[in-house]
Amino acid sequence: MGKKESYTSSKERISSTISFHSIAPKRVIRGKSAWDEGKKIVPFISRNPIFIGRSKQTLPLRKNIFSTLKREGVQATFTELEYDCCETDLKRLKTIALRESSDGVFAVGGGKVLDAGKLLAHQLKIPCITMPLSAATCAGWTALSNVYSEKGSFRYDQVLDHCPELLIFDHDFVRKAPPRTLASGIADALAKWYEASVSSGSSTDGLVQQALQMARVLRDQLLLDGQLAFSDKDSEAWVRVAEGCALTAGLIGGIGGARCRTVAAHAVHNGLTQIEDCQSLLHGEKVAYGVLVQLRLEETIYGNKLAEQSRKQLLTFLQKLSLPTRLEDLGLTSAMLPELQKVCNFACQENSEIHHLPFSVNRHELLEAFICASKDTDLISHSTEINVKSI
User: How many folded domains does the chain comprise?
Assistant: First the structure.
């Protein structure tokens, strides 16, 4: 009996030290005209992929890419998502892929298209090729997919077996995306530092520590180059920032793994997706406001004076990129208490990432931080405090 107990406890100790990392795509091609090289590699990965996209704005470009594949001898099946990455679409696309005997997935578009492509490939056990058409997220890189409802509400995330087989990041294609998508990517990439430094800053894991340092360097680069990149697509700053958002941010997540955690900023994002008025916002736009909320929580609950300074500095930067910094920018007001309550209830549910913070947060505290994220402490009205506490 003693030996069995000793064996069990030893096994548990060993398991607790094991981490699984999907660090990067097998191959990444980046730069101006990267597609000219990428198209030559695709046939060696998949001869008959299911080709996935969605946006009407990118349809002409996707048709051009699809035609190029045919000229390279790739017999792809052209399909489009009807919704965001959701189970309904995945079920339909899986049926098509099986019917056409697809031997790969080629996902071209924004983050939710790339997530759907990766998850479909994961389910079918076939290789995935991603081609981001914006720098709005690092979804083209990672071994993770976020799943939404048909209405666009966040449901859950799915860890995948591995990163894509090939990622093609063509600067010419990505430059065609609206500046708003780059701003969104900047906010999402900045969150790598603001979230992981709080959840994992005291980690003794070497890879986590190194991922954190990469996140800090990326944050500094985005703060230095972000405004110029946003205003000038032809600048060198744009290249550094776009690749930082779409590629480096993914690498940080791969190196840090599950122990390099997201916390309140993405929990707020997930909550905001539950509100119809916020459906038109991009992923990083919701995350941007979530970072402000998180810093407010650190400031008011944790007593972190540096968080107060960071929040005020970040406000100015986000405003220069036309990112949300007020409730009104989200399509909400402090008077919409039922909607705000719904956001906070979802963000504080039992399995939420917000509970990776080094302090506890309840829905009342989150609601106050949510309403006051862009305000100075001495400007919070007594009426606001009453409204928050009354819910």
Answer: 2
